[in-house]
Structure prediction request, 235 residues.
Amino acid sequence: MATPHISAEKGDFAKTVLMPGDPLRAKLIAENFLEDARLVNEVRGALGYTGQYNGKSVSVMASGMGVPSIGIYSYELFKFYGVENIIRIGTAGALSSRLRVRDIVMAMSAATDSNFSAQYELPGTPAPTASFELLIKAYECAQQMGLDIKAGQILTSDVFYSEADNLAKWQKMGVLAVEMECAALYLNAARLGKNALAICTISDCPLTGESSSSEEREKSFTDMMKLGLECAVSL
Prediction:
């Protein structure tokens, strides 16, 4: 059953997988939120676990950084392991002036500068969007948890250190935040008939310089983690 990048066996993953970028965040979630969590993948350090949350089976697995990495892992989970829903729980940089560090954003859609969609040879430009079922479930869970969630368009960029100063231009288009994975996840889900949603915590504000530490990003964004888990078990 193993794929080139995942060593798990058939049935090792739950129908819903939470995908943080950081393997250590996946480990933290498994050890602190899941019951009876077991390690199902550690190829290339992309730690994956399956356990129980509120009596339901949930998996969590690292996606790594960037479109190529989440493009591979999400495709293999959807295509070969019977996963139906992937919820990205990651970090993003705020572009909107309405956002501050630790705010949570749900990506309704993802603009992108990536060339990932060229593989489909479409006669136009696709619009990577979240699955409505996951979006509405997550929003309902956020309300029940008393969380103030912003929802809208984000930007998936291939470039972290950029020579061009383009973020302000995306801000003018109403883009809320920038990250590096969402568009590929949404496109894979669309192509394979699956469901995907990105829930991101704001870790920094690149246009103002406000930021959080790497340790805070790994360990302290628990509201996002709990929201992803509550959404997973409500499906």
Q: What stands out?
A: The chain has one domain: 16-234. The domain at 16-234 is CATH 3.40.50.1580 (Rossmann fold).
